[in-house]
Every structure is written in C-alpha cells, then in structure tokens.
Write a structure and sequence with these properties.
4 helices; metal ion binding; HMA_dom_sf; Heavy metal transporter
Amino acid sequence: MKNTLMIIVAAISLLTSCATSKSSETTKPTAYIQTNAQCGDCKERIEGVLNFEKGIIYSNMDLDTKIVEVKYNANKTSLEKIRNTIAAIGYNADDVKAVKSAQSALPGCCQPGGHD
C-alpha cells in the first residue's frame, strides 16, 4: 500500500512538472522578422539593441535572408514592440517601416541602396 501511494505521488508530481514546463514554453515564442538590413554592422546593431530589450531572450539575424530570429517572453514584451524597436533603430521590420530619422542616421552603407 505504501509503495502504491508513493508511485501515485510520483506520477502526479511528474505530470504537474510536465504541464508547468509546457505552459512556460508557450509564453516564450519565437518570431521571424524580415528586415532590410544589409551587412554585418546592421546585424550587430539590430542584435545589440534587441538583446538588451526587456523580454528578449535571444536574437540572431541571418544576413543571407535578412531575417531576425527572436525568442521572447510574451509576458514581458510583444511582437509589435519588437518590430517597433527594429523600426526605431532604422530598419524595416515586416510591415513596420523604419523610422526615417533613425534610418537617415545610419552609416551610408547601411541605408537602403547603400550596398548596391
């Protein structure tokens, strides 16, 4: 009887921990955001800002596709805020256009048409 009770307690404990880890994963989604970044400096600039934003767990930009992969805590930030942060740096982020003044402040090679 004692062994059966211990097995039941262990099973409940295991199920509870699985449910908890699943729910925490759903609050940490991964987004893929298309940008118009062009070079390694753009990559460093975007990742440098995003990786210090509240709620951002991880960001990495692929220079070939110009897509930024962002893992974030949905309880602390949103996809909209992340896109707006990228736009505020001076780059397009999906359908959010770059803030013109920030884009103008980028080095010439990082502005649209700078690497053509």
